[in-house]
């Protein structure tokens, strides 16, 4: 239980730090994707989708944006949306094993 609380605190802190980084440089897709990951770990799927979508808007060829958004959609049971995102990951990175596994879950 304490570990979970500690982990949640670290992801909350990470979100705050990535928010500050984005304020300094809003064109860095890694900041958005990493903040999306932190939101995913906290089960804040709507926020994860927003950040992943922003990463995709900044760089449409950044596969992690699609992967993070797909993971959030999958967690929410939005299988069609997740399928589209993981297909896009495979289009950008055909050898992505994790995306292949996620496609099967859709």
From TrEMBL:
Entry's Gene Ontology BP terms: post-translational protein targeting to endoplasmic reticulum membrane
Record Pfam families: TPR_1, TPR_17
Chain positions of TPR repeats: 29-62, 63-96
InterPro entries reported for this sequence: SGT, TPR-like_helical_dom_sf, TPR_rpt
PROSITE patterns: TPR (PS50005)
Entry GO MF terms: molecular adaptor activity
Statement: the UniProt record of this protein carries the keyword Aminoacyl-tRNA synthetase: no
SMART domains cross-referenced by the UniProt entry: TPR
Any single Gene Ontology cellular-component annotation: membrane
Keyword set, alphabetical order: Repeat, TPR repeat
UniProt-listed PANTHER family: LD24721P
Name of the protein described by the UniProt record: Serine/threonine-protein phosphatase 5-like
Origin species: Arachis duranensis
Upper lineage: Eukaryota, Viridiplantae, Streptophyta, Embryophyta, Tracheophyta
């Amino acid at each position: 239980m304490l570990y979970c609380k500690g982990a949640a605190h670290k992801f909350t802190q990470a979100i705050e730090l990535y928010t500050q980084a984005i304020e300094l440089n809003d064109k860095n897709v890694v900041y958005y994707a990493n903040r999306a990951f932190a939101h995913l770990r906290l089960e804040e799927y709507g926020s994860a989708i927003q950040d992943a979508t922003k990463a995709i808007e900044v760089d449409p060829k950044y596969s992690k944006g699609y992967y993070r958004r797909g993971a959030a959609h999958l967690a929410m049971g939005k299988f069609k949306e997740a399928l589209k995102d993981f297909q896009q990951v495979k289009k950008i990175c055909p050898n992505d094993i994790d995306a292949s596994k996620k496609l099967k879950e859709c």
